[in-house]
Amino acid sequence: MPVPLGPTPPIMTTFKGFVRSTNAAINRMERAHQQRVRHAEKIEKLRMKEQMLENAAQAVQQYTEFITLLTSLHKEAIEPVDWQGILADPVPTAPAYSAEQENWLRAG
To answer: How far apart are CA 54 and CA 48, in angstroms?
Structure first.
């Protein structure tokens, strides 16, 4: 068998063959484009999910900080309370009943 020297000459195709190969190339490009679009949509969906999880974690952290603030508010007194001094104070007098004040309030 003789070994060919140099590149082989191009094969002449028919018009139908040319159209078929062109259509095949177009279909390959369309499939590749659709695959890139699906991949981009998948990445966007993952990004949205991560953003949603991040927002939820931030809301939980804010809520936890708010609850901590509410539950620790009574623990942090601005100035100490002198409970012994309050206990030593005289008991306040009970309010006296006055029909005149009651009538005035009802009329007003």
So the answer is: 10
